[in-house]
């Protein structure tokens, strides 16, 4: 029987990581009762964060739940739920439901050339993919593009610092004031794509995109024109997901629900169902 009752989770820690953005670590309480479903979480899936008396909102995992019930999420203050979370302190207990949706095609990334492109908060659903691939080293080549507006809006700073020691990182910022020219390119994710693709030699086998939907759409169109199969390009789509289980219809796109059929779709799927961003 479907249950919409949240599991209790504790706020273990958090730190500011970008403008009005915090990186949180949570812990699932009463693991003997609640942990099993969370251990099945996949990169690219999401969960519903529940603030009693306030409401719910969907967030992606930046670190998947482990055997101790620990997981992480990047949260930007944008509404009543996130404002209430920002008022919480370490040790406070709130709620969560999940995991939900369809994640990234991890099995298809093995021994492939992978291009990862994240814009703004879009780096969040890509973080656990990058971590998993770096842990396994089961890829031929992986390069990461991260784009932001300015210095204040940069996110996942500790993670990106660590990643760049293992794979090529293209950090791109529209306004580079106060940033090192040796570490940041000036421009946009779309503007840097020709340079990045040139470094691959052979074209990427898989492309993972997340961020503003306009950016994802234009990037996908560019990559197809470059010669990459639409079935090999994957996007993470955001919509208002109120129930997370395909009941409320708020995330309905043509004949699909983003919460249950996504949030990850191949570009070929989006074109076939006429729900391209």
Automatic annotation (TrEMBL):
<dbReference type="InterPro" id="IPR017938">
    <property type="entry name" value="Riboflavin_synthase-like_b-brl"/>
</dbReference>
<keyword id="KW-0001">2Fe-2S</keyword>
<dbReference type="Pfam" id="PF00970">
    <property type="entry name" value="FAD_binding_6"/>
</dbReference>
<dbReference type="InterPro" id="IPR050353">
    <property type="entry name" value="PyrK_electron_transfer"/>
</dbReference>
<keyword id="KW-0274">FAD</keyword>
<keyword id="KW-0479">Metal-binding</keyword>
<dbReference type="InterPro" id="IPR017927">
    <property type="entry name" value="FAD-bd_FR_type"/>
</dbReference>
<feature type="binding site">
    <location>
        <position position="243"/>
    </location>
    <ligand>
        <name>[2Fe-2S] cluster</name>
    </ligand>
</feature>
<dbReference type="InterPro" id="IPR019480">
    <property type="entry name" value="Dihydroorotate_DH_Fe-S-bd"/>
</dbReference>
<feature type="binding site">
    <location>
        <position position="251"/>
    </location>
    <ligand>
        <name>[2Fe-2S] cluster</name>
    </ligand>
</feature>
<keyword id="KW-0408">Iron</keyword>
<feature type="binding site">
    <location>
        <position position="248"/>
    </location>
    <ligand>
        <name>[2Fe-2S] cluster</name>
    </ligand>
</feature>
<dbReference type="InterPro" id="IPR039261">
    <property type="entry name" value="FNR_nucleotide-bd"/>
</dbReference>
<protein>
    <submittedName>
        <fullName>Oxidoreductase</fullName>
    </submittedName>
</protein>
<dbReference type="InterPro" id="IPR012165">
    <property type="entry name" value="Cyt_c3_hydrogenase_gsu"/>
</dbReference>
<dbReference type="Pfam" id="PF00175">
    <property type="entry name" value="NAD_binding_1"/>
</dbReference>
<dbReference type="GO" id="GO:0051537">
    <property type="term" value="F:2 iron, 2 sulfur cluster binding"/>
</dbReference>
<dbReference type="Pfam" id="PF10418">
    <property type="entry name" value="DHODB_Fe-S_bind"/>
</dbReference>
<dbReference type="GO" id="GO:0016491">
    <property type="term" value="F:oxidoreductase activity"/>
</dbReference>
<keyword id="KW-0411">Iron-sulfur</keyword>
<dbReference type="GO" id="GO:0046872">
    <property type="term" value="F:metal ion binding"/>
</dbReference>
<feature type="binding site">
    <location>
        <begin position="74"/>
        <end position="76"/>
    </location>
    <ligand>
        <name>FAD</name>
    </ligand>
</feature>
<dbReference type="InterPro" id="IPR001433">
    <property type="entry name" value="OxRdtase_FAD/NAD-bd"/>
</dbReference>
<dbReference type="GO" id="GO:0050660">
    <property type="term" value="F:flavin adenine dinucleotide binding"/>
</dbReference>
<dbReference type="InterPro" id="IPR008333">
    <property type="entry name" value="Cbr1-like_FAD-bd_dom"/>
</dbReference>
<feature type="domain" description="FAD-binding FR-type">
    <location>
        <begin position="4"/>
        <end position="106"/>
    </location>
</feature>
<dbReference type="GO" id="GO:0006221">
    <property type="term" value="P:pyrimidine nucleotide biosynthetic process"/>
</dbReference>
<feature type="binding site">
    <location>
        <position position="259"/>
    </location>
    <ligand>
        <name>[2Fe-2S] cluster</name>
    </ligand>
</feature>
<keyword id="KW-0285">Flavoprotein</keyword>
């Amino acid at each position: 029987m479907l249950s919409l009752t949240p599991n209790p989770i504790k706020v273990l820690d958090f730190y500011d990581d970008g403008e009005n953005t915090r990186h949180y670590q949570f812990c699932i309480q009463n693991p003997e009762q609640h942990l099993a479903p969370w251990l099945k979480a996949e990169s690219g899936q999401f969960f519903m964060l529940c603030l009693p008396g306030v409401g719910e909102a969907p967030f992606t995992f930046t670190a998947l739940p482990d055997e101790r019930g620990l997981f992480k999420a990047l949260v930007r203050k944008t509404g009543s739920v996130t404002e209430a979370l920002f008022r919480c302190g370490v040790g406070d207990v709130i709620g969560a439901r999940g995991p939900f949706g369809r994640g990234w095609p991890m099995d298809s990334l093995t021994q492939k050339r992978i291009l990862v492109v994240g814009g703004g908060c879009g780096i969040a659903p890509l973080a656990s993919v990058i971590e998993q691939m770096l842990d396994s080293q089961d890829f031929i080549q992986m390069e990461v593009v991260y784009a932001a507006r300015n210095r204040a809006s940069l996110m996942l700073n500790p993670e990106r610092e660590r990643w760049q020691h293992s794979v090529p990182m293209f950090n791109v910022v529209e306004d580079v004031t106060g940033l090192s020219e040796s570490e940041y390119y000036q421009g946009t994710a779309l503007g840097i794509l020709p340079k990045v693709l040139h470094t691959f030699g052979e074209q990427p086998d898989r492309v993972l995109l997340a961020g503003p939907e306009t950016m994802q759409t234009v990037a996908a169109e560019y990559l197809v024109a470059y010669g990459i199969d639409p079935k090999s390009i994957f996007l993470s789509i955001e919509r208002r997901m109120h129930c997370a289980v395909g009941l409320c219809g708020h995330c309905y796109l043509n004949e699909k629900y983003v919460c249950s059929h996504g949030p990850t779709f191949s570009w070929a799927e989006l074109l076939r169902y006429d729900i391209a961003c």
